[in-house]
Design a protein that fits this description.
The chain is built from 14 helices and 15 strands. By secondary structure, it is of the alpha/beta class. It folds into two domains: about 100 residues, 2-Layer Sandwich (Enolase-like, domain 1), CATH 3.30.390.10; about 270 residues, TIM Barrel, CATH 3.20.20.120. The termini are far apart. The structure holds magnesium ion.
Length: about 425
């Protein structure tokens, strides 16, 4: 009997105060359903609407096993394609269909990709601090957990807290997160000099520019960071300015990771084919789920470009699981960003709050042990959803503040 899609539900939940969007695809087979992540934390109601009003009627009654056909159908049906709302909605369904496929095969999803290339996934974690001393202290905490890849930032991503208006802004300048790119570059170079002299070269260091400086400043920063042997420099230029990567390449040997904000293949094809980046780090739900991510991973493999998928707090454990399943089967896997889903006994209290609520809403979390993440061996993605628990943590719709970043003159800068 064909496995038919009977219903598609959207469950919005915020167990840690971050809006998460889970899509549940129910089938005509008793007890058989799939779960996927369509989290667009800052526009969660728009994703919910696309799934409920457009994708559910489109897919109800269709064969849940035809993942490629259904992905193309969702992608093409609205005529205009791509974009974060549409792609996250599609991703939620796509991941759920892979989850169903794994359950039907009685295999974890990575087995459907050809099986494991490696047993566990090395991750990088994000260390921050007000100054060098606090940062080094936090790095040491991660090293005690077995983490050897660490992203280092000082004072967030180079901006003050919201509402800080420096004396240099013109009269009437609006509130925002103010950035001083010159100071940020000087501080960052000094910071890495300090980390290396205090802790040596035995750890892999990453730094995230977060697109927050002008492209020519990114070239300068890359050159000045060269002596400190970074694993990579993350998102040095904005999605609109990737042509600058050619110049960055000519002037610096620093490895480059780019792509957190990418939406569609037109944005990465040339960068990979011309080897202008070393790591591709898309946000998998943002490009439409596992189906396009697998194609991207295999495409990148042909050009020697490695993967470093985005793995922030504003995506659900289902999306973290999707990352890990692809990583396990990818010969060109590089490193995985990990935002800290560990059993409560692993949690560093100074860095993160307790994770109890997340564990209760999403039973079957991936396992973190000594610097590596392991997939559980359950069929499908291996992560479930407790809808009763999820309902205890409703999402809130608020005006997003942290993305309102401004240059010293008060004008907006990409966040
Ligand atoms: Mg980043």
């Amino acid at each position: 009997m064909a496995v038919r899609i009977q219903n598609i539900k959207v469950i919005c939940t915020a167990p840690e105060g971050i809006n998460l969007v889970v899509i549940k695809v129910e089938t005509n087979q008793p007890g058989l359903y799939g779960l996927g992540c369509g989290t667009f934390a800052y526009r969660h109601l728009a994703v919910k609407l696309v799934v409920e009003e457009y994708l559910r009627p489109l897919l109800t009654g269709r064969n849940a096993e035809d993942i490629e056909e259904l992905w193309q159908l969702m992608h093409q049906n609205g005529y205009w394609r791509n974009g974060p709302i549409e792609n996250n909605a599609i991703s939620g369904v796509d991941m759920a269909l892979w989850d169903i496929k794994g359950k039907l095969a009685n295999m974890p999803v990575y087995q459907l990709f050809g099986g494991k290339c490696r047993e566990g996934i090395p991750v990088y974690r994000h260390a921050d601090g007000r100054d060098l001393e606090e940062l080094c202290h936090n790095i040491e905490k991660f090293r005690e957990m077995g983490i050897t890849n660490i992203r280092c930032q000082c004072g967030g991503y180079g901006g003050g807290s919201y509402g800080n208006t420096p004396g240099t802004a013109p009269a009437g300048a609006l509130p925002g997160v103010y950035l001083d790119s010159g100071k940020y570059i000087r501080d960052t170079v000094k910071l890495f000099e300090g980390i290396r002299s205090k802790l040596g070269y035995g750890i892999n260091l990453v730094h995230d520019v977060h697109e927050r400086i002008a492209p020519s400043e990114a070239v300068k920063l890359a050159r000045e960071l060269e002596p400190f042997d970074l694993l990579f420099l993350e998102d040095p230029v904005s999605i609109e300015q990737t042509d600058w990567l050619r110049r960055l390449r000519r002037q610096s040997s620093i490895p480059i990771a780019e792509g957190e904000l990418f939406n569609n293949p037109a944005e990465w094809k040339r960068l990979i084919a011309e080897q202008l980046i070393d790591y591709i780090r898309v946000h998998i739900s943002q490009i439409g789920g596992i189906t396009p991510a697998r194609k991207l991973q295999i495409f990148a493999e042909q050009f020697g470009v490695r993967t470093a998928w985005h793995g922030p707090g504003d995506m659900s454990p289902l999306a973290h699981a999707a990352n890990i399943h692809i990583d396990l089967a990818a010969p060109n896997f590089g490193v995985q960003e990990w935002s800290g889903i560990e059993p409560p006994n692993f949690v560093i209290q100074e860095l993160k709050g307790p994770r109890g609520a997340l564990l209760e809403v999403f039973p079957g979390l991936l396992e973190f042990r000594d610097g590596y993440v392991y997939a559980n061996e359950k069929p499908g993605l291996g992560v479930d959803l407790n809808e009763k628990e999820a309902a205890k943590y409703p999402c809130e719709n608020t005006v997003t503040m942290w993305t309102q970043t401004r240059r010293r003159d008060g004008s907006l800068q990409t966040p």
